[in-house]
Amino acid sequence: MRRRILCSAGALATTLGLAGCAPTLPTYTGADAGRAVIGIGAGPETRNFMLNLSYRRVGSEASGMFHFSQLSLAERPDYRDGVIRAELLAPGEYELYTYSATRYVGMTQTSFKPRQPFSIRFTIRPGETTYLGNYEAYHVTRPQLFGLLSQDVAIAWVVSSRITRDMALLSGRDTAVRLSPATDATPDPRKLGHPLLRATPP
User: Fold this and answer.
1) Burial (0-12, 13-18, 19+ Cβ within 10 Å), 20
2) For residues 95 and 109, what is the distance between their CA atoms, to the nearest angstrom?
3) According to a count of CB atoms within 10 Å of the terminal CB, is the N or C end of the chain lower?
4) How far apart are CA 107 and CA 129, in angstroms?
5) Distance of alpha carbon 79 from alpha carbon 162, whole angstroms
6) What is residue 148's predicted lDDT score, i.e. its pLDDT?
7) Can you give the pLDDT at residue 149?
8) Which residue from 22, 31, 30 is spatially nearest to 3, judged by alpha carbons?
9) What is the distance in angstroms between the CA of the first residue and the CA of the last residue of the chain?
């Protein structure tokens, strides 16, 4: 296993919207690895964003990240405007705990992070797949100048289970997925108590 360090200094951290310097989870290649699967994308009116959902092992500072960029010409979306991500992880308890979103318009960039903390727990079991849900980003705006203009003030996520579609898309390019049982661990956003994790678009 190897451990990498990503710091805010440098082009990579700027691109990914990272802040500070934090250890990342080492790549796990053990025979007992489980798989975390997530859909991450953007709503119809959300454009020019780089989106990150971060996870970590419960009780650890080392973290990993599910990433989707609408700006990458090299990346082909798996569905309308999103991707299916899969990570091999050591068995144990994990949590989605923060996100970042950066919008680029010309030479201007605007970044968003949650002001209110959250924890979405999930369990990785040996040889099994845990589906975390589908997360669709929407920018939240506030009217300005008597309603003639609007300003982006936050990013909200619509959380839903699309396990049948997402797992089918993933298994089309990853044959190992077909061989492991999948557990739907999509949270009910109505029970999360977070204003930016929602069941419906803002």
Assistant:
1) exposed
2) 28
3) N
4) 41
5) 12
6) 57
7) 55
8) 22
9) 42
Please say whether the beta carbons of 97 and 150 come within 8 A.
no
Those residues with Cβ within 8 angstroms of residue 202's Cβ, 6 or more apart along the chain or in another chain: 138, 140, 156
Q: Which are the contacts of 31, defined by CB distance < 8 A and separation ≥ 6? A: none
Ranges of residues in the chain with a pLDDT under 70 are 1-22, 143-152, 178-179
Stretch (H or E) spanning 58: none
Strand bridging mode 149-160 / 197-198: parallel
The tokens for 107 are 């030479």
pLDDT given for residue 73 in this prediction: 84
The answer to whether the CB of 95 falls within 8 A of the CB of 118 is no
Dihedrals phi, psi of 159, to nearest 5 degrees: -105, 125
Instruction: Say what the pTM is.
Output: 0.84
Closest to 99 in 3D by CA, of 74, 72, 58, 136: 136
pLDDT digits 0-9 by tens, 53-112: 999 999 999 999 999 999 988 888 999 999 999 999 999 999 999 999 999 988 889 999
